[in-house]
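Collaborator request, handled under Task 6.
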Amino acid sequence: MARFSVENFKFHGLEAVKLKDKQSGLNGILVVGWGSNLISLEHDETGVKILRTPNSANDLRENSVGWGFPVLMPPNRIEHGRFTFEGREYIFEINEKGINHIHGLVHNLPWRIVATDTENAAQVMTAIRSDDHPSIKHSYPHSFELRMTFSLKESRVDFRVEAENLDSTSMPFGIGFHPYFNVPLMPDSAKENCTVQVPAKQIWELADLLPTGKKLSVSKGQNLQEPVKLSGVVLDDVYTDLTLVDGKSTARLADSGAGIAIEYGAGKEFKHWVVWTGHSPEDPFVCLEPYTWVTNAPNMELPHEETGLVVISPGNSFTGNMWVEVVR
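Structure tokens returned to the collaborator:
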């Protein structure tokens, strides 16, 4: 029997694939037809359900950024839903309290499967092209293709994101991810047993959840460089000035009651992490969100090197890498 499998199926009517490593027991469900969202990641051997999974397609449709592993392009908020780049105006739907745009353009659209492979991992590549979606081109007037590759093997999923500029003009680019990690990781554990850690020395000062342009040293209550109990904090902060090891930063969610941890790593191209613990201390998740550009980057009068805004010239591409691993 082959060790790895990638199987097409319908998640309550939505196009999806199941990825599985039969040897390790790690398996995932990727809903290609609604945002290319990895809505489920489970480890059979330990019983760990890593991601918050919707109960129906309706749940996913009604809140496509509230489950699984949403893809945000661009990430987080754009102030007043607009910015200007190289003399061109970019206008987005105002979808947050009548003031800002939030969460980008691709999380609730159908992607397509480009390729699958089961030789060395359970692997699938998905893609979305702006020319196929007027709603994208309305806000982002460029021809481009966004691709995601998911590779599941042993106790780990590797993610590669690629953005290819197919246009004749330079394209401003930012991407982020908004995964919902279950807290606790096992039903017989509790939130009091769970800690979070992010290797960041600074946070962005925020006004109405938008960066002011000023960075601050992390203070007590926001300092996640050492493990912090999730039962004692309510966070919605943007972290930066990351400590890199081998060119990567790694966030960690640990559940001592389950004897399990989740490590989430991102390459140096992801300069910022948002940590969100929900609207109340009782919410059963934590979102650890790596971003290439900081919230509202195109509207900030700071160097691109600082905000993370990437300029993709015609015919060129951006590539970013991440991984999620179950650690015992």
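The cover message to the collaborator said: "The first strand starts at residue 4 and ends at 11. Residues 57-62 form the longest helix (6 residues). Please let us know whether this matches your experimental observations."
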